[in-house]
Amino acid sequence: MMRKEVEALMKQKGWKTIVLIMNESDPLGVYCELQSGFLQDFTGHRVNRTHNIWGYLDFKQGKGVRTSF
């Protein structure tokens, strides 16, 4: 899923933050916030718009569950 699609999904669901998993093999995710309508990582830079994002970290009962888009 591309950055623009993730931004639209977050706006639709009312999410302000998300932990993105860029590649299926990545052990950790990147904490991101929706600021001014754009997805920015924890350093304040916009997420790469050409990268196909694999999924996100969904928290259920206090544990992180890797979820693909």
Question: How does this structure look, described?
Answer:
Strands 3-2-1-4-5 form a five-stranded antiparallel beta sheet, covered by helices on one side. The N and C termini lie close together (about 5 Å). The chain has one helix and five strands; from the N terminus they run αβββββ. The longest helix is centred in the first third of the chain and has 11 residues, at about 5-15. With about 70 residues, it is an alpha+beta fold. It has one domain.
Average pLDDT reading: 94
Series of secondary-structure elements, N-terminal to C-terminal = HEEEEE
**Helix content percent band:** 10-25%
Strand proportion? 35-45%
Give the low-confidence spans.
none
Could you give the distance between the termini?
Answer: 7 Å
Query: Rg to the nearest angstrom?
Result: 11 Å
Number of helices: 1
Shape: globular
The number of distinct structural domains comes to 1
Tell me the major beta sheet: 5 strands, antiparallel
- The oligomerization state is single chain
> How many beta-strand elements?
5
Structural class category? alpha+beta
